[in-house]
């Protein structure tokens, strides 16, 4: 059987309250009863001594006693559950409660036994007598025997006090139980309300609605983390869905042009409008190569994003390696009369040389595409204790602030700041970022429209 969180919280509050009250009741009973028992024993001894002192004061002289006063003392003691037997030095009885009223003494002892048995079913008390000397003016004038149920007993008032205390604890327990149920219900509503919102929100995500967001004004840290995580999840899923739709649109857009070109040229040849000469076949071949490159780049990107990439690290002179790359690209600068310069000390790096070359070539190639006549590209290298820094900057057309956040997305070149005439598949920078990430590094871009662009690469040593 499944139970709601609200039910579990309510029951938990009630159980905690009930257990606490039970523990308090049990410990209170044990502690207070032990203390009260010790108090009764001490009180009994003090009372016995006080009775002996009072009877001693009733000695007149020459063996005479104030028997009437002793009788009053004995009757008052009988009300307290004590049986008094006073004797003089000759062991003659002065006053004896059992002689005065034997039936009352027996009834009193039976009542005490019944009280104690009701409180302690296994109580094993017995009638005991303690003897005290009667002293007047430093002279022993007699003895008094005080009998009672021992080792201790509770009279009616004392037993009423204990019962009242227990009833009070029972009342407190019941009140605490109901209070805990009420508090548990209220707290469970407070706690489960945002959770219920989160569940409904998660269900809406499951149903494909990524537009909703949770507004949580609760100050519970874990609930805030939960709602923030769900909102972030919805943002991520929504962004991924938009990216997927954009990818589908971009791939279709990228493939449509060369496929349309192929279709129109082949149809023209089939209709006899064009002859299938070498020039036209070379044009068709270039379009097929273009499609093949787009598909190949997409496959490479998919492998990179899925983590299916093998990094074969080796230690090499990065500065010299970049200079060799630049040498291979110098011919592309001649038409623009542009320059490229490598600056910085010799820097040694342990990385995948081929894959890092792919990144460097891609970025430099982009810089060459977008610099003007007489422009320049500068490559700076530096290092810290933990990082190798590579800066590739140009004074080209730059990138607008609107386009800058999307620079590493697929087919970025199809955005407004790029055009199809520059060539390429539009996935180069996306692949470059994935390769840098595979090396545990970072890549950033800074740009000012009309002034130039700078790529900043950080690689761990």
Brief account:
The protein is α+β, with helices and mostly antiparallel strands and 461 residues long. It contains 10 helices and 11 strands.
Topology-level CATH name of the largest domain: Beta-Lactamase
> Strand order of the main beta sheet, please?
6-8-9-11-10
Instruction: Please summarize the sheet with the most strands.
Output: 5 strands, mixed
- CA-based gyration radius: 51 Å
Question: What's the count of strands?
Answer: 11
Q: Which of globular, elongated, flat, extended, rod-shaped describes the shape?
A: rod-shaped
CATH top level of the largest domain is: Alpha Beta
Keywords:
10 helices, rod-shaped, 4-stranded antiparallel beta sheet, 5-stranded mixed beta sheet, Beta-Lactamase, 461 residues, Heat Shock Protein 90, Helix Hairpins
SSE layout and pairings?
Elements: H1 5-56, H2 67-79, E1 83-88, E2 93-96, H3 97-100, H4 102-119, E3 126-136, E4 139-150, H5 156-206, H6 221-270, H7 278-305, E5 314-317, H8 318-329, E6 339-343, E7 348-351, H9 353-370, E8 376-383, E9 387-394, H10 428-438, E10 442-448, E11 452-460
Helix pairs in contact: 1-5, 5-6, 6-7, 7-10, 8-9, 9-10
In words, what does this structure look like?
This protein is α+β, with helices and mostly antiparallel strands. Helices cover 56% and strands 17% of the residues. It is built from 10 helices and 11 strands. The strands form 3 sheets. It has a 5-stranded mixed β-sheet with strand order 6-8-9-11-10, with helices on one face. A 4-stranded antiparallel β-sheet has the order 2-1-4-3. A hairpin with a 3-residue loop joins strand 8 and strand 9. Helix 1 packs antiparallel against helix 5 (156-206) and helix 5 (156-206) runs parallel beside helix 6 (221-270). The chain starts with a helix and ends with a strand. Residues 414-423 have low confidence and may be disordered.
